[in-house]
Amino acid sequence: MNPSAVLRISCPDQSGIVAAVATWVASVGGNIVHAEQHTDASDAMFFQRVEFTHAGVTAVDTLAAGFAPLAAHWDMTFTLDALPWKPRTAILCSKQLHCAADLLARTTYGDLGLDIVAMISNHDDAAPLATSFSLPFHHVAVGEGATARATQEAQLGELLQSLNLDLVILARYMLVMPPSLVAPWTGRMINIHHSFLPAFIGANPYRQAHDRGVKVIGATAHYVSDVLDEGPIIAQDVAHISHRDDVAELTRQGRDLETVVLARAVRAHVEHRVLTFGNRTVVFG
Amino acid sequence: MNPSAVLRISCPDQSGIVAAVATWVASVGGNIVHAEQHTDASDAMFFQRVEFTHAGVTAVDTLAAGFAPLAAHWDMTFTLDALPWKPRTAILCSKQLHCAADLLARTTYGDLGLDIVAMISNHDDAAPLATSFSLPFHHVAVGEGATARATQEAQLGELLQSLNLDLVILARYMLVMPPSLVAPWTGRMINIHHSFLPAFIGANPYRQAHDRGVKVIGATAHYVSDVLDEGPIIAQDVAHISHRDDVAELTRQGRDLETVVLARAVRAHVEHRVLTFGNRTVVFG
Amino acid sequence: MNPSAVLRISCPDQSGIVAAVATWVASVGGNIVHAEQHTDASDAMFFQRVEFTHAGVTAVDTLAAGFAPLAAHWDMTFTLDALPWKPRTAILCSKQLHCAADLLARTTYGDLGLDIVAMISNHDDAAPLATSFSLPFHHVAVGEGATARATQEAQLGELLQSLNLDLVILARYMLVMPPSLVAPWTGRMINIHHSFLPAFIGANPYRQAHDRGVKVIGATAHYVSDVLDEGPIIAQDVAHISHRDDVAELTRQGRDLETVVLARAVRAHVEHRVLTFGNRTVVFG
Amino acid sequence: MNPSAVLRISCPDQSGIVAAVATWVASVGGNIVHAEQHTDASDAMFFQRVEFTHAGVTAVDTLAAGFAPLAAHWDMTFTLDALPWKPRTAILCSKQLHCAADLLARTTYGDLGLDIVAMISNHDDAAPLATSFSLPFHHVAVGEGATARATQEAQLGELLQSLNLDLVILARYMLVMPPSLVAPWTGRMINIHHSFLPAFIGANPYRQAHDRGVKVIGATAHYVSDVLDEGPIIAQDVAHISHRDDVAELTRQGRDLETVVLARAVRAHVEHRVLTFGNRTVVFG
């Protein structure tokens, strides 16, 4: 089977782009197996994802270098990546472990192709989970004193840098991260928030949902930006609830949403199906 | 077939209520055909809806009078209503007519038992729709000048009062109503808002949803209170969307949500299945 | 605003098709505003829908004639249609009128661009509905006697032929049609079936669903083929139910599914977004 | 906190049952915290689940003995169980481990109160999973020869009997069980089938779904009966799919349905919320 590559481009909408890209793929011996495009009329932007097989004698970096002149001509931003991709990943969590356990189970017994190299938490509850999946566990606790939080953030930032990661997943990591921690991971750090954002930003969204008396709860997976719960949304899902469901029950039902939505977002990222523009995403199928 | 009655009660949670109510129903010759209860543990409140058939020699008002001492003993708030109920209803709309048209079609060709006695709008677009369903149409427009809006609100308030209504449905009526207009209709005025509240309160929720890049849109039917889009929620539903859907497409897809959610809420109200407490509802099945 | 055209192609999967099609569109001065493709790996088939604006000096038929050599070269089946399209449509129904009423309301007060030229029924219940929307009503009843059904089918077939129709919608038309009636309308006759096919084929699907004790009901819109309920599926949707819902309640809840699913399928057809192959469909977004 | 008990009754519908049951609960010092009832009009049957706290000086068996005369009087079938209940459970699986892994993760890191005492499989793939959760693994393989299958079934039957189980979960166990193996576990053996039954009974439902071209796939959890895939359905859920999804993708997406639906059914069973009658279930909320 021939290797695959994924080309993602975004550029001002112009006539002729599709033909130019398809012609280029054909010129390097590529065979398009999946292509999807989107024109955002309000912003006059064009987005495309082209997945193609190729002979494999050419490395992806060489292909990218060959595409660069075309990209420059059309004023494109682009990425060109190999598929399948198995990103070096760290999973961060706190006391709630269902999302982390789910990601580990999918990686081990399912079909999520992550190379998980570390589990990290501000609590030590996750240590047995890491052990049962033979993963290194890093306990980065918040100590005592006025500077404890800053110290923890510095330690965490250094740890993440040291691990040579492609992807950081906040799988119910409950400490808000400062912009300095987030900035190096733009577009490479995915968080799961337990509400359908932008409703119920911040702490205790299930409590907020209960007190407002909503009939639907949700979960949102998004890239982390420097504004809390405001980054580009990758995936959301919802479930119907009723007056019968108290906060504990919402929390329980919400877990299924959180695990499924986070896994869906991570998969889309790993398959190079997400493009971001401004605070929004294009997620190709 | 024997007539039916619906008893709805809410009271502080106490041991023995269920037996007391069931015993009372049996004492008046009633046969319970459906009963549902809910205990809200956080507020220590008990809610129940009991639907029962009875011989019919006794009027519902007499039944209610007979229940009153029991209610007083247990510190209950209660209503006792006949079923089926065909409330005298006014439908208010503006330029978007899909919700109004749907309610009329359900009433005429479907199974929604409303006695629609008036269509009211601040625009005259709905006149042909009213005519084709042989309904009186009231055009209550906003005129020119500084006091035009207040004049319109006064006219509308008087019109609603004059119609001897049981129910007012805001089927995409787009003018915000002042508290004085809303107050007489507490628990009897239902609005459809085109977002999953509390996200995207106010104007242009589909535009807001698009700009935030959400992957789910929704609609919310609620009793109108004196705070905009803050009344007790009766029904909500949602639909998955993608980057492909621009504001016009969200608006189009949202119409199906709005019509279905509004009809669902109106039906629950007409079947005496809704109880409110604070800003929340219990909607029995 | 320039006119739009939609090119739909299906052909054996080959390298270079996308480039060839995009180059052709550019060669006729077209600007691709939306393109979507699908490769069915198991059948080695390629499908594409390309929506493009063009100067409009060229008629769609002329464009199609110009594309024919390319299509022949790549062994393509293709259609090339103008957009928007307002097909001459007949709506067939029986006693249940919710789907028909919904299609009329969407056409008149919503955004479904049908040119409805006839309502046809084997019962006369729909006559007032047709009248209130100023539409001709054709009552094609089944008479008495051994040949009554055949006579009715012949009358109906002739009526459909005489109306110069683009589209026939079976909006809860409850008589099974013989192959001779269906054959002339392959790919142009859409039916709504009140179950998630292939479960509960045939009569009384809500009764069947109730007796099997399912927890989900559905509705299916499909092109009519000569085998009952076996044609290519265009759209399906489902709703959760519970033990509480008797057959009457399933029927009532199912109506919302039926109207929404049928309208969704009709819209996809009208927007030239459906391709069929064998007994399956590709429905582009 | 006082202990809880759950009374489930089914009997011919009669006037006065609710009062009689509620009076009995009060007579033993019980306080009803949740009650739900259902009258099946077509079968004239009454079903009720009453959850109540009690002083705890009385054992559940003694309570049940005390209720028996009342049950006899009203011709009731009933069960009376303690809550919470942590059933001794065996999980059976084959090569697909996502459901088994999910149940283990929910038991260990989530909130599903099972006492899992054995993992059993006809393959040895699940051994590492059992080990990582410190569970005994039983490999009951099918050997060679004409009688191999019968031998395996006999071994499995004996193993299940020897484990003193309350519950057997078929978490994608792919061998069809003969009636003799199923009979001892009526109402205590739950299977997950990877389609929305009754569509796509038997082998390869995702292949069947793909070939029929459906737009929705599903999963069904049901009690196992002696007819394949025909037992009483406890839970079902569905997901929208498109032409893009090949059999492998349906299989992948279906996994999320299977794990969530199976866990939902198991939870309902463990909380004594399910009653069966004929081939249907009542699942109280």
TrEMBL record, chains A, B, C, D:
Species this chain originates from: freshwater metagenome
Annotated GO MF terms: formyltetrahydrofolate deformylase activity
Entry annotated with the keyword Transmembrane: no
Gene Ontology biological process terms in this record: 'de novo' IMP biosynthetic process; one-carbon metabolic process
HAMAP family the UniProt entry points to: PurU
Family annotation (PANTHER family): FORMYLTETRAHYDROFOLATE DEFORMYLASE, FORMYLTETRAHYDROFOLATE DEFORMYLASE 2, MITOCHONDRIAL
Protein name, UniProt field: Unannotated protein
Keywords associated with the record: Hydrolase, One-carbon metabolism
Residue ranges constituting the ACT domain according to the UniProt record: 6-85
Pfam families in UniProt: ACT, Formyl_trans_N
